């Protein structure tokens, strides 16, 4: 578990399926990351659990430390097609604009550099996602390249370990 002043991050599991579907059902949340059926969520969460087991990292549920409420997801995801580890973040709309994405992402990036000794972490951001681009810039990420993920254009930002 990773903790910050306001947040707790814990590995996502299959027990989070209903919450995952609900988080991604909001059209404003899913316009860049997509919506999920229960079957798709189960497959994705199974893959996340496998990544935790095989790589020692994966995506996390982000909870408010004070209440335990799940407000989003963040973590490190390995993309085999790029052979890169990405820091990602997605939050429920009710929790936008409060600095939670940057706080959670900073915690997972720091954890990736210190605990996992990753040399570089990327952030793959879909075109038009200005909020995530701002979070990446706030954390010190810079543009690395343009690419495609799941058939959609992305800008890959990168941050190297100091």
Task: Summarize this entry quickly.
Pfam families: Acetyltransf_3. By secondary structure, the chain is α+β, with helices and mostly antiparallel strands.
Draw up the topology in text.
Layout: E1 2-3, E2 7-11, H1 17-23, H2 27-33, H3 38-55, E3 59-64, E4 70-79, E5 84-91, H4 100-114, E6 120-126, H5 130-138, E7 142-149, E8 152-160
Antiparallel strand pairs: 1-2, 2-3, 3-4, 4-5, 6-8, 7-8
Helix pairs in contact: 1-3
Commentary on this structure:
The protein has one domain (2-160): 3-Layer(aba) Sandwich (Aminopeptidase), CATH 3.40.630. The chain has helices at 17-23, 27-33, 38-55, 100-114, 130-138; strands at residues 2-3, 7-11, 59-64, 70-79, 84-91, 120-126, 142-149, 152-160. The chain is globular. The chain has 162 residues and is an alpha+beta fold. It has five helices and eight strands. Strands 1-2-3-4-5 form a five-stranded antiparallel sheet. The chain has a three-stranded antiparallel sheet with strand order 6-8-7. Keywords: Transferase. It comes from Kitasatospora acidiphila. It holds the Pfam family Acetyltransf_3. Residues 7-155 form the N-acetyltransferase domain. One of its GO terms (molecular function) is acyltransferase activity, transferring groups other than amino-acyl groups.
Keywords:
alpha+beta, Aminopeptidase, globular, 3-stranded antiparallel sheet, 34% strand, 8 strands, single chain
Number of domains: 1
How much of the polypeptide forms β-strand, as a percent range?
A: 25-35%
CATH fold-level topology: Aminopeptidase
Tell the overall outline: globular
CATH architecture: 3-Layer(aba) Sandwich
Number of strands: 8
Poorly predicted tracts of residues: none
CATH level-four homologous superfamily name: Gcn5-related N-acetyltransferase (GNAT)
Distance between the termini: 24 Å
Average of pLDDT: 96
Total number of helices: 5
Quaternary structure classification: single chain
């Amino acid at each position: 578990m990773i903790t910050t002043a306001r947040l707790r991050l814990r590995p996502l599991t299959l027990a989070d399926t209903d919450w995952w579907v609900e988080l991604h059902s909001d059209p404003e949340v899913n316009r860049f990351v997509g919506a999920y059926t229960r079957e798709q969520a189960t497959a994705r969460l199974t893959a996340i659990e496998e990544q935790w087991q095989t790589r020692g990292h994966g995506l996390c549920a982000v909870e408010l430390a004070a209440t335990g409420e799940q407000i989003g997801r963040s973590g490190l995801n390995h993309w085999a097609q790029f052979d890169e580890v990405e820091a990602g973040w997605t939050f429920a709309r009710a929790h936008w604009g409060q600095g939670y994405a940057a706080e959670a992402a900073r915690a997972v990036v720091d954890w990736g550099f210190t605990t996992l000794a990753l040399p570089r972490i990327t952030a793959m951001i879909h075109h038009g996602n200005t909020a995530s681009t701002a979070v990446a810039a706030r954390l010190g990420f810079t543009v690395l390249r343009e690419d495609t993920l799941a058939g959609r254009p992305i800008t890959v930002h990168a941050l190297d370990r100091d």
